[in-house]
Design brief:
The structure is a single chain. With about 220 residues, this protein is mainly α. A three-stranded antiparallel beta sheet has the order 1-3-2. It has a two-stranded antiparallel ribbon with strand order 4-5. A hairpin with a 6-residue loop joins strand 2 and strand 3.
């Protein structure tokens, strides 16, 4: 089964998978609920601000790949949506939890996967996470791959392959932290400049006092 998902489709599919387990009372999701799920700030990387039209387009594409379907309840006129990953791949629960986190947060270490998949499937230890990753890597075609370890990191990261092959993972810079650092540097520089100006004034005063003192002996 050949699948190639863009970033928005990954977010939509991952959100449907997550909400099926974490909020089953509200699943399947209406379009409005799905947009909110895609744009929520927690458990998402990167943060998105998707419009309804973008989510609707992603749903259309996912439907064409038999990965989601629309459902209409007899007591509601609102169309709702649910994923079909189980039908497409016949996943075990631990496999779908791992894949869901990778869809929503990008490449992850086994430790991150264990922690972030906890709400969908509790893993006893890291060996259980590794076993799930191996199952996904041995599928035909593979659904997960291990990425080259980045310099200075202790653990390798794993990525899903529903968006094609992945060569490497580069962590996106924390823009907020960067801005904070720049602001702090600016404050330190301003403080140093004030100190230098004060010292310069002090030296000028001492020179003036010394000149007055010398005149007393001329």
């Amino acid at each position: 089964m050949n699948i190639f998902l863009n970033e928005v489709e990954c977010r939509v599919l991952g959100s449907l998978v997550e909400k099926e387990t974490t909020t089953p009372e509200y699943y399947p999701l209406s379009l409005n609920a799905l947009v909110n799920a895609c744009n929520q700030k927690s458990n998402r990387e990167p943060a998105m601000n998707l419009e309804e039209a973008a989510v609707r387009q992603a749903l259309h594409s996912l439907d064409g790949q038999s990965l989601i379907r629309s459902v209409s309840a007899a007591d509601s006129r609102v169309t709702k949506y649910e994923h079909r990953l189980q039908e497409a791949f016949n996943f075990y629960r631990h496999e779908i939890a791992i894949l869901c986190v990778l869809l929503l947060r990008g490449p992850q270490t086994p430790g991150e996967l264990r922690s972030r998949a906890e709400r969908m499937h509790p893993f006893d230890d890291l060996s259980a996470v590794h076993a799930s990753l191996q199952h996904l890597m041995k599928r035909e075609p593979p659904l997960v791959k291990i990425l080259p370890r980045q310099p200075g990191t202790k653990e390798a990261r794993y990525a899903h392959l529903l968006s094609g092959d992945v060569e490497s993972f580069e962590a996106k810079p924390d823009l907020e932290a960067t801005a904070s650092g720049i602001h702090a540097d600016g404050e330190r520089i301003a403080h140093l400049e004030e100190k230098v100006a004060a010292l310069q004034k002090e030296i000028a005063d001492l020179r003036q006092q010394f000149a007055v003192f010398r005149k007393q002996f001329e």
